[in-house]
Amino acid sequence: MTGGGGGGGGTAAQAYGEAWYWDERYRKEAGPFDWYQKYPALAPLLAVYVRRHHRLLLAGCGNSVFGENMVDDGYQDIVNIDISSVVIDQMKKKYRDKPHLKYMKMDVRNMAEFESGSFDAVIDKGTLDSIMCGQNSQENASQMLEEVNRILKDKGVYILITYGDPSYRLRLLKDLQLWTVKLHVIDGKGVGSLHGN
């Protein structure tokens, strides 16, 4: 994942885990953007593991239309979180008439506002990758994954859409011993690793 320079003294890649970087980016780029894959490409995979009535979390939602597309396809309860207060405010306004979409400012490394075992699935389309680009990446990634594991129900799934090296991502996930892992390659780009605890 590459990007242009950001403020704050670091490169853009190093800043991907920082709220200030995303606040600045969403002030400048208000139009919707989907990292990696759009909903139509992922819908068949999601349908295998996620039901329309499940409570879902989109981690690091940004200004993607992914959640909107899921609601249009019949999903009923989608909570969207992002570290950027700027984008969360934008999305709350944009989707104020869609009660199936909820937006909250939150850091994926600390989701204490959510009770343990409160989600059927967590969908991550690039958030772990962003954290892996920043400082203290290993520690921050572990915190995020432990929080994801905590908020998932017993049979819940974590769906990770990544451009990262699959062997590295799998090693990280297996080292934490939280999940069994299945790997899917979608359209030859973007690797969807699915993890059921």
Automatic annotation (TrEMBL):
Domain Methyltransferase type, first and last residues per copy: 59-159
Keywords annotated in UniProt: Methyltransferase, Transferase
Gene Ontology terms for molecular function: S-adenosylmethionine-dependent methyltransferase activity
Domain of life: Eukaryota
Keyword set includes Transferase: yes
Family membership: Belongs to the methyltransferase superfamily.
Descriptive protein name: Os08g0517600 protein
Organism expressing this protein natively: Oryza sativa subsp. japonica (Rice)
